[in-house]
Design a protein that fits this description.
Largest sheet: 6 strands, parallel
Order of helices and strands: EHEHHHHEHEEEHH
Distance between the termini: 13 Å
Number of helices: 8
Strand content: 5-15%
Helix content: 25-40%
Radius of gyration: 19 Å
Structural class: alpha/beta
Shape: globular
Length: about 300
């Protein structure tokens, strides 16, 4: 089994584990090699292709085909689900353009939602001609993960199927960071020693953080048993990682033991601020993954 397992994010429903493996394994090795060249980790930490695997769950979001019974969300005018609306507004606020403020019980108007979408379309997060359609898909997949038990179970099973006795580092990107975190909490017996989260929404209050399993309650989110390190990396323009500091939200303090909290590290991904491959090729990410590989 692989020493490093990568859990992908949203928008991968038309790909597969092997399709993703080639570019992901190469980018991960490039990042560790760059960190080794800078002296952050020894050269021996650079993994071979067979040391890297991908946990794929994108098929859980793929429609069965014609007459599937699902209503397509093609424009912001089709956005009627309250959770998806709130997630859109939260991401737009992180981009600096949430539109008009609303009262605590007032539903967002179409005008407010369109303002939020326009703010995101102007941000570095969503370049390209199909940006609006992609964002609407993001909102729906996050909502389905937290709202549909079969989808959540499929994602967690995908991670469990790839983690083996040699796996010491788990890497989660975007929604995949939520999947990776919940999978680790559910399996304290795993040999994983380092969690690396990339462009993670784990810190988003109400919409993500408060819906995690195990539930944080009134205290911090649980530190997965067995971990010796957790590195969280985010680009400053990434609206998915709207809360970029996870250290105040997760971990253990007191009780006579050294505090264990995530290490928050900023990265610069250029104009593709949320891109998985750009995250993996960053020296900072390579250093974190290399540290996890050395733990084995």
């Amino acid at each position: 089994m692989a020493r490093a397992v990568v859990v992908h994010g949203v928008g991968q429903e038309y790909l597969g584990r092997r399709t993703l493996h080639g570019p992901v394994a190469a980018a991960l090795a490039d990042g560790v090699e760059l960190a080794a060249g800078a002296g952050d980790v020894p050269a021996s930490a650079v993994p071979a292709v067979e040391d890297v695997d991908v946990a794929f769950y994108g098929d859980a979001f793929r429609s069965a085909g014609a007459k599937s019974g699902r209503t397509a969300v093609r424009t912001v005018g089709d956005l009627t689900d309250p959770y998806e609306q709130e997630l859109l507004l939260a991401m737009a606020e992180a981009a600096g353009g949430a539109g008009e403020r609303r009262g605590p019980t007032k539903a967002p108007t179409p005008r407010v939602l369109q303002q939020a979408m326009n703010a995101l379309l102007r941000s570095p997060f969503l370049p390209g001609p199909v940006a609006e359609r992609f964002l609407l898909g993001v909102l729906r997949q996050v909502r389905r993960y937290f709202g549909e038990e079969k989808v959540r179970a499929r994602a967690l099973d995908a991670v469990a199927s790839r983690v083996g006795p040699d796996t010491t580092v788990l890497v989660g990107h975007s929604l995949g960071s939520v999947v990776a975190y919940e999978a680790l909490c559910a399996h304290p017996e795993w040999p994983v020693r380092h969690l690396v989260t990339l462009g993670s929404p784990l810190g988003m209050p109400s919409l993500v953080f408060d819906r995690l399993r195990p539930a944080p309650g009134d205290g911090p989110g649980r530190w997965p048993e067995g971990l010796t390190g957790w590195t969280n990396l985010a680009d400053r323009h990434d609206v998915v990682a709207s809360v970029k500091q996870l250290a105040p939200l997760f971990g253990t303090v007191g009780g006579g033991v050294p505090p264990r909290v995530p290490r928050d590290v900023p990265v610069d991904n250029g104009w593709k601020v949320h891109d998985l491959l750009r995250h993996l090729t960053a020296r900072e990410t390579g250093a974190a993954i290399g540290e996890g590989l050395r733990a084995g």
